[in-house]
User: Fold Zinc-binding alcohol dehydrogenase family protein from Massilia consociata.
Amino acid sequence: MRSCVVIAPASVSAVRTEQYCQLDLHGVAAHFGVIDIPAPDFDPDSDAHAHSVLLQVEAFSFNYREKARVVKVAADPNARGYLVLGSELGGTVLQVGCAVTSLKPGDRVCGNGTVEAGSAPLGLTTQRASAELQVIHAAKLQRVPDEMELTEAAAFSVGAQTAYGMVRRLRAGPGDHVLVTAATSNTSLFAIKALRNRGATVHALTSSPTAVPYLRSLGVQHCCVLDRQGDHVPALRAYLETQGMRGFDIVIDPFMDIYLRKLIPFVNRFGTYITCGVYAQFAQADDAFLYRGLPLDEMFGLLIRKSISLVGNNLGITDDLAVALRDYREGRLQIELDAVLSEGTFATFVERSFMSSNRRGKVVFRYGKRAATMATETTIAAALQL
Assistant:
């Protein structure tokens, strides 16, 4: 069966690829390929697989955090073999375990990254979403509407579930002025739409002036642009003055290491700041913009004096995903797809996924129709057990 992998430098000549590309990723040469690996065994009557399904993946995509996994393998001179990639998928159920009642063969699904306690693992459905055949616990999958393409499903679950989880926890609605940072990131795009559906006033923060027309096309009326080379303080003050505001009631921030120290002075007393991640997950070139802002002691002192609630958020719960799918089904939530690519455009898929600065939405790779195949002995022997 096919899988998208990053290959350790020492194993590039040993791993046979159907498609291959090399990408300079933050100063490291990363080798990517589509290869055949062994298909998993699945026994629906066994205790091990009773609550699982056998899934055929048609489309997959990467998430931001995956870049750190790639760099780690590509930069390790002692690594051997390859690492299977992929964080989101769209696929069809082929078989179900004997105890599964929520799904049936033929169901079309996306991942369910619920962090609710239960019998299934918490968090992401898989970090091997590109593997063409997978055995997955049924609780980690969610049926998608008939009108949703599987290429859309492969760009939906993580961003939608995370954004809708944050909006639920914030109870944002009419009268709230919500600042969404990194406004063209996938999670932020979903957050913007979820907030607008609930009547909140959305302010989109971006460091890219060229993103403003795109954000306006999504219905965002208020855009604040920060110059990465300039001082953010007068820019934010001027923006708030123009809007006739003292500050923001709520901030939704995917990258707290960039924005938290910059924005706390501009959050209203008793406001809420919610964040779901960090930007600096791997070594990269120095960028002064990342480190501007209050010293940590001043920032936390101000946060306390203003009684600002600082909230961490990891993904969401099943109900968050269900609400997002309902909004999609009722036409209130459109999925932003930058591109859907397939065989012959593998290098473009990798480059746009990891390096494009003008990407608008997710980049999805779709497998062409063919029977899943077993791997060669050479490829099997090369696998990294990570």
